[in-house]
């Protein structure tokens, strides 16, 4: 299982749909509201879709205010769908930054209302488990041979999680959390160093076990159903921690997945933000954003990618 691209000519040629800043009508005929004004700088380099790396203010009070606005907009069903990618990415980067800065994060938490303080604590706890998991690892100088693709629509993914829950008894929130930490809900189309494959990162040998893999290892529906069956086989119905340990032999991994699952159980609307998180890779050059369109058949130096795509790193 997977724990949680010279010059990329493919990215430069991919067509992106830049988020709209105007109001629109949703499918039910309601007027969709515009999200909050996110920090912006016209001098920053942008990706092909016109977006730059999310800016996180230095002042804890400003971070708290921004985070409240973002969280509210993400859970508001009237927020324009065109705004959601930027909102989700902003949320993600705020938590990635705060997870590595204990002092600032504590100051931010004190400025959040209780409702959002508990949400932030969940996010920070999960992220810090992954940081602890790799604390003694050297940051790689090569970026992976991945292809970053658009995920299945959120509604479809949710239906797959719920179908798997109905069939096996494994909570859909756990399956969503696994899908998130393994491949960003299917954005990563690639093979891990251990040869794990597909949106739920199965080893072919595990997939081929009787009663586990059915269908296509790279198909989101089939992989999510198989993940639920695998968790059952590893004792997940009796103790989900035991099942998750079978998925990845790390207490940090198990705790992180359960934090995200708890977040979804406390408020299923949190799935919206998580769904729009982007793929970030912690390299020796920093925390690099690999957007949809990244496509590399062989690992390449992070320095080469950053030189070609300066928008992939915070300034």
Q: What topology emerges from the helices and strands here?
A:
Elements: H1 9-13, E1 24-25, E2 31-32, H2 60-75, H3 84-99, H4 102-110, H5 114-133, E3 142-143, E4 147-148, H6 154-168, H7 172-183, E5 188-189, H8 204-207, H9 220-233, H10 240-247, H11 251-266, H12 270-275, E6 279-283, E7 286-290, E8 300-301, H13 302-308
Antiparallel strand pairs: 1-2, 3-8, 4-5, 6-7
Helix pairs in contact: 2-3, 2-4, 3-5, 5-11, 6-7, 6-9, 7-11, 9-10
What is the ordering of alpha helices and beta strands?
HEEHHHHEEHHEHHHHHEEEH
Q: Give the terminus-to-terminus CA distance.
A: 33 Å
How is the main sheet built? 2 strands, antiparallel
Radius of gyration, CA atoms, in whole angstroms: 19 Å
Q: Strand order within the widest sheet?
A: 1-2
Q: What gross morphology would you assign?
A: globular
Number of domains: 1
Number of strands: 8
Number of helices: 13
Beta-strand portion reads 5-15%
What helical percentage do the residues reach? Answer: 40-55%
Name the structural class.
Answer: mainly alpha
Mean pLDDT: 90
The stretches of 5 or more residues where confidence is low (pLDDT under 50) are 1-28
